[in-house]
Amino acid sequence: MMQRRAFTLIELLVVISVIALLIGILLPALSAARKSARKAVCMSGQKQVGTATQTYAADNDDLLFTFSWTGSREHPSDFSTFSDLNGATTDFEAASFQAYDILRRATGLGAERFPPPAQWIPHVLYSHLVLQDYLAKRLPEPTVVCPEDKVRLEWQRLRDPGACRSLTPGLYPRVEERIAYSASYQLVPAAFDAAQSEPGAAARRIAPVVANHYSYKVPPDSSLGNVRFTSVAFPAQKVLMHDSHQRHVGDRAIYYGLAESTQPLLMFDTSVEMRTSGDGNLGWKPDYPRASAIFLYKPVVGDGDPEPLAGYDTGDLCRGYYRWTRGGLRGADFGGSEVLMDK
């Protein structure tokens, strides 16, 4: 007679244990592979922006990409076909009108969704709007958002102001109309504020607000835009764009102004490199050039900051590093000492 032999309970438990062990070994590797892939996508996106920067400069008389409208409105192109987006009296107000002009035309949404903005500096997170012809001509533009920036990716998916507001209830007033079109990568001030690179122009330079890490101080007589690519003295050593936070290293998003923050950085020569903030030059306080830029770290819940982090509080000090380069475009962030420019 033939006898059929079945699995014993112990054998079954051993097999299950082996499978569980293999899964436990493979899952971290798969997670690391996904994380590595997202970093590669992030660096590729920044590289595309770098290439678009050089192409834009070649097509526009060597100008770095940013908003071109000014308060003086010297050119016919400084006027919008939307009557409520004219009448700006300062450069940064004109730039905000230009940003909303682009948003209205590219999305087909009107003044109800994009009413004339209050005082706001669009250059930091929205300068990519002027690169539409050099990217994929789409809004929102996924190329300018880090794949690890989950909040901003969700904003892009939702787009509806009410939905974005409910997702991040800490947003300050009116930001929800435009937030879905913002970038993870921030343009350094020297790329749109020529005074950063001019000796003796301390009173006209945009500068960080010491009280918190997310605000800029804009002098009334500041002149924005019209910064030339050839003003960059060390293209391979000067940062063009960077993320606000470390997102690809470890399991915590660390603000760029903290020394241990490590992230991919887009340089002016279009290279993208993983750099640690503390390995670079300290940066300066543009309106008080002899001092290094030091300001308080004050996380804003719901403003794209994935903070606050355990171990950091609102009393932590940040340094300017590559966002506030001493000498602006005449200076270097990595691989060389700071330039001697103290006025």
Helix-strand sequence: HHHHHEEEEEEEEEE
Uncertain regions: pLDDT < 50 for 5+ in a row? 307-312
Helix content: 25-40%
With strands numbered from the N-terminus, the spatial order across the biggest sheet is 1-4-7-8
Query: Residue-averaged pLDDT, rounded?
Result: 85
Q: How many helices in DSSP terms?
A: 5
Report the count of strand segments. Answer: 10
Q: Give the radius of gyration.
A: 23 Å
β-strand amount: 5-15%
Q: How far do the termini sit from each other?
A: 101 Å
Chain oligomer state: single chain
- Spatial shape: globular
Taking the sheet with the most strands, its summary is:
4 strands, antiparallel
Number of self-contained structural domains: 1
Class from secondary-structure proportions: alpha+beta
Structural description of this entry:
- Helix content is 26%, strand content 10%.
- With 343 residues, it is α+β, with helices and mostly antiparallel strands.
- The protein has one domain (42-330).
- Strands 1-4-7-8 form a four-stranded antiparallel sheet.
- Mean pLDDT is 85; it is low at 307-312.
List the helices and strands and how they pair.
Blueprint: H1 9-59, H2 91-107, H3 123-126, H4 150-158, H5 161-167, E1 185-187, E2 207-208, E3 216-217, E4 239-243, E5 245-246, E6 254-255, E7 262-267, E8 272-276, E9 294-296, E10 317-319
Antiparallel strand pairs: 1-4, 2-3, 4-7, 5-6, 7-8, 9-10
